[in-house]
Fold this protein.
Amino acid sequence: MKIAVVHGPNLNLLGTREPEVYGRATLEDVNAAVAELAAELGVEVTSFQSNHEGGLIDHVHAAAAGVDGFMVNAGAYTHTSIALADALAGVARPYVEVHLSNVFAREPFRHRSWLAAGAVGVISGFGVDSYRLGLRALVENIKRKVP
Ligand code: DQA
């Protein structure tokens, strides 16, 4: 099984970006934690980060044929991007939405997600563990659907 991890805008700054909100782990740390769990679960993962909406959309289009699902932290595009939601719907692969912070405990504009309705599920507020939980849940969900 192959899962593509997609990180949206500003997540390249993890480690130094608002550490009181997002913690001290860098994006490299997040990817390493995901890769470690992926090895344990026997799944392959790729990781991609972009600060550009179109770059994320192009990646979803390009990666979709070769993967069983996506794990997406779209950053602020979660709350704004109908285009990214359309891209994920368009490629028809299951995806899990993850957030480091608990978006529902934050500003009201973070309470809306354009991606959530099409997601298998949403995990928010557990820091790096959001990605670990997300990967586990997505892999289980995909396995259950395969006859
Ligand atoms: C985030 C939450 C978003 O609201 C924010 O814009 C981010 C990060 C998170 O992982 O907690 O960039 O997706």
Remarks:
- DSSP finds five helices and five strands in the chain.
- The longest strand covers residues 2-7.
- The first helix runs from residue 19 to 22.
- The chain has a mean pLDDT of 97.
